[in-house]
Design a protein that fits this description.
This protein has about 240 residues and is an alpha/beta fold. Helix content is about 45%, strand content about 20%. Helix 4 links the parallel strand 2 and strand 3 (about 105-110). It comes from Pontibacter cellulosilyticus.
Length: about 240
Amino acid sequence: MAVVPYKDQNDDKKSQVATMFNNIAGKYDFLNHFLSAGIDIIWRKKAVSLLAPEKPKYVLDIATGTADFAIETLRLNPDKIVGVDISEGMLAVGREKLAKKGLTNKIELKYGDSENLPFEDNTFDAITVAFGVRNFENLKKGLSEMNRVLKPGGTAVVLEFSKPRSFPMKQLYQFYFKNILPVVGKIVSKDNAAYTYLPESVQAFPDGKDFISIFEEVGFKNTKWHSLTFGISSIYTGKK
């Protein structure tokens, strides 16, 4: 059974995830940086640096949210970045951010379902997704879509939470995720479920070698797994 934000509702995971992000969009950036003590910014920089040797010119950022990862990817000097997300609330915040920064000519944000991407085969030089694959309703289908729209030889970079396995980080991480993060998230976001769903979805996610196996199953090659900050997060890369 899929982990969903609102257990008292009958909507599918995709609909619930869209609703959740619409609800917390206005506080999302603040909570992201606050609850991770800013480490999420370092993780994004590391993920983007792994793409630097590829010099991609046309990049797709899936589950782009408020466009933080897309903005960070501009360091690679691509011609164009397209960001897609199923939450109109998050996209609205992202568009406002891009307008303030004068980046609307470099980054285009549009509504898009990661499991049914509105693009032709072999379109993008690189694909990025930060903290998004965990929210896919069908992980294999979403990863297969990434592979489909990526050009042959192109690279996909996935940044996602993972589960520390060594003492004492494992115990500290579990305490923080189960006892502190949900309380702070609820108070700030005003959404009772969003930051309870986060640790539950991380716990259910097939991270590490399990993710690499699925990544390869849908067609990615030369896959690599980079563990970050004692295993709290991971970067996965693969080529088509």
